[in-house]
Amino acid sequence: MTLTQFLILLVIAAICGSIGQSLAGYDLGGCLVSIVVGFIGAYIGMWIAGKFGLPELLSIKVGGKVFPVVWSVIGSALFTLIMALIRRAISGPRRYL
After folding, report:
1. Could you tell me if 75 and 38 are in contact, meaning their C-beta atoms sit under 8 angstroms apart?
2. Cα–Cα distance measured from residue 2 to residue 22, given in angstroms and rounded to the nearest whole number
């Protein structure tokens, strides 16, 4: 995998992670966090798809690596929701005066 292919894969993961965060309605951080959320979402989404026997709907092949776009967005949204619930449980609800 060349450097440009790796950068393209990072951009795709960032876009999928940011879409997943937008769908969840909660923002975990900036661009680097979106990349991490995109990759974690891809693993979570593919795990869920494997458990239920669902096919890969939209995959992008970059440098011999397949990146599942739809499952990455779904997994990113689920991961963001879980992180938001954990963060809210730890810090408590916000009170506005």
Report:
1. no
2. 30
Taking a C-beta distance cutoff of 8 angstroms, is the pair 75, 39 a contact?
Answer: no
User: 56-80: per-residue pLDDT in tens?
Assistant: 888 899 888 888 899 999 999 999 9
Who's near 91: CB < 8 A, 6+ residues apart? none
Q: How far apart are CA 19 and CA 40, in angstroms?
A: 13
Full DSSP string of 19-78 = HHHHHHT----SHHHHHHHHHHHHHHHHHHHHHHTPPP-SEEEETTEEEEHHHHHHHHHH
Structure tokens at 57: 């709907």
Q: Which of 46, 40, 47 is nearest to 16 (CA)?
A: 40
Which strand (E) or helix (H) includes residue 94?
none
Rounded-to-integer distance, Cα 92 and Cα 22, Å: 22
